[in-house]
Amino acid sequence: IKTCSSGGCNLGNRPINYHLDGFRKFGVDISEIDDELWMQAKSLKGTQIDLEFPSVGATINLMLAAVKAKGNTQINNAAIEPEVIEVGNFLISMGAKIKGLGTGSLLITGKKHLSGTDYTISFDRIEAGTYIILGTLAKGKGITVKNIDPSKLSSLLDLLRGIGCNLEISQNEITVFPSNSLRNFSVITKPYPGFPTDLGQLITVLMFIIKGESSLKETIFSNRFSHVQELQKMEANVVIKEDTIYVNGPCELKPATLIAHDLRCAAALILAATLSRGITFIDNIDVLLRGYENPVQKLKYLGLSIDIIP
Predict the structure, then answer these.
(1) What is the pLDDT of residue 166?
(2) Would you state the pLDDT for residue 52?
(3) Which of 28, 68, 201, 277 sits between 20 and 30 A of 116, alpha carbons compared?
(4) Strand order of the sheet with strand 36-40?
């Protein structure tokens, strides 16, 4: 197999050594030539892999390899994010043998053949979290997010309830009602079930309507703050000190012309634009479409005046 080096959003250093080290343990010969990876193996052999960090991507990649490897594979310090469980359940529906989903230790017995399957994927918890955070900014009768599992959003919901947000939570939907007074807060991104790094940029926007200093510490990626320089164009009182964002609110945001540097940056800038009076332009908005299904249609349904200009 020949593949190019990894891409995606520029979130800083995003090494794939956990993936490659794991593949080598399966017996894969890997050569790195310029920006290309060459990988080959006559067969994959079950092994034990001890991840230094519970990487979601590495856990999924190694799980995909293990279901076709000969013998048993043990993956320790595996990621436990719902997305890992989702992929595991999908593979099980095809006949894979996987034990320990949702724990830090996976035991996988390889199979020679997997079968076809019909499988319904779960909701996107980051997309759901985006609209829930939008609900904390909105006025009116509130915003309801349906067809979700609130238990997979516990870190976000615990934070919002703790600062005084008015939430109504049922088995498969959440309604966010307007709140008169919210308390300032500090949050740290962590692997699941901690607060997700993918919601860090968005929760920053909530800080703009709260009196006092709030902060966000990022522990997963080294370049998660691309939205800050754009928010400063809107005259937000937000600064970066090492791995932490500090906001002194409330902030009266001004419309501006902005650049979406990555997926969650784009979503955060849209949320921020709802807090300003006037028209805000966001360039490079195509990055948003990689992670949200029909976002313009949904946002218009909620009452936003938003269009993508060709």
Answers:
(1) 97
(2) 95
(3) 28
(4) 2-4, 36-40, 29-33
Amino acid letter, 88: G
Strands 105-109 and 97-99 come out as antiparallel
Helices (H), the chain: 17-25, 56-66, 82-93, 125-137, 154-162, 200-206, 226-233, 263-273, 295-301
DSSP bridge partners of 249 = 212
Which of 49, 68, 69 lies closest to 59, judged by CA? Answer: 49
Binned average pLDDT, 10 residues per bin, the chain of 310 residues: 74 78 97 89 97 96 98 98 98 98 98 97 97 96 96 98 98 95 97 97 98 97 94 98 97 98 97 97 96 96 94
Q: Is 9 a catalytic residue?
A: yes
Cα–Cα distance for residue pair 39/73, rounded to 1 Å: 20
Annotated catalytic residue within 9, 165, 251, 265: 9
Sign of CA dihedral 47, 52, 55, 57: negative
Q: Which residue has the tokens 């949702």?
A: 102
Domains with residue ranges and CATH for the chain: 2-109 (3.65.10.10), 152-164+180-301 (3.65.10.10)
DSSP string covering 88-128? HHHHHHTT-EEE-TTSSEEEEE--S------------HHHH
Alpha carbon separation from 131 to 192, 223, 272 (Å, rounded): 20, 24, 13
Spell out where 22-77 has E strands: 29-33, 36-40, 48-50, 72-76
Q: Pull the structure tokens for residue 198.
A: 């993918």
Task: Give the pTM.
Answer: 0.93
Count CA atoms within 13 Å of residue 34 on its CB side.
Answer: 3
3-class SS shares of the chain: helix, strand, coil, % to 5: 35, 25, 45
Residues contacting residue 33 through CB under 8 Å, at least 6 positions apart: none
- Who's near 236: CB < 8 A, 6+ residues apart? 208, 247, 251, 253, 272
